[in-house]
Amino acid sequence: MHASFCCQVKEIVNTMYKFVKFQFTQTMLLYLHERMERKEIKMVNFNLVLSLLAITSLTNIKTTDAVTPRDVSSIRFLVSVNDTWGSCLATVATPPLKPGVKHNYTNAIHVAKCDHGPLDYNIMTSYDGNSQMTVDVVFHSSVIEDAGPPECTIPWNGTYLVPTPKKMDLSLLPGCSIKDSREGYHVTYYWFYILEWTFG
Fold first, then answer.
1. Virtual torsion, Cα 88, 91, 96, 100, nearest 10 deg
2. Together in a domain, 16 and 74
């Protein structure tokens, strides 16, 4: 009976972690699950699980509906550029940007003296089983002239990432990176991270 109860609680914890979007609740569920996996706790107070559900309910966050691209009204990005041939390395935060707006309708982002240009992005539903959405970022660089603009895809669940004891150096910001070259040999590196967002 004890083993059966413990397995039932572990199943609830796993299910809640999959659907809950509130970061504090996710972290607590992950911590609870890992302690159970290491057998540091043999019995879970069921009131704790109910309390975590209550926290989620009080934050008015739906636990059964996934975040969709339609829910996202704006995103602020961190943009880093390492212009190796010009010895320039800088990071800036963009203003809130709306999805689906063409680059010729947005203002240029100036990453110090490393690079500048408009940034646009589109959000798509993901079907890879690992994330709910993908954020396709395109930076219309003034440096990259003889190739397509730097672009990469950020897998995203509409939340910050949650670190684990096994991945303590994991960035909490969902992001992607790419390198591109000017004239075939001047390499420039780009990083894009989701810093803030708004729903609605």
1. 50
2. no
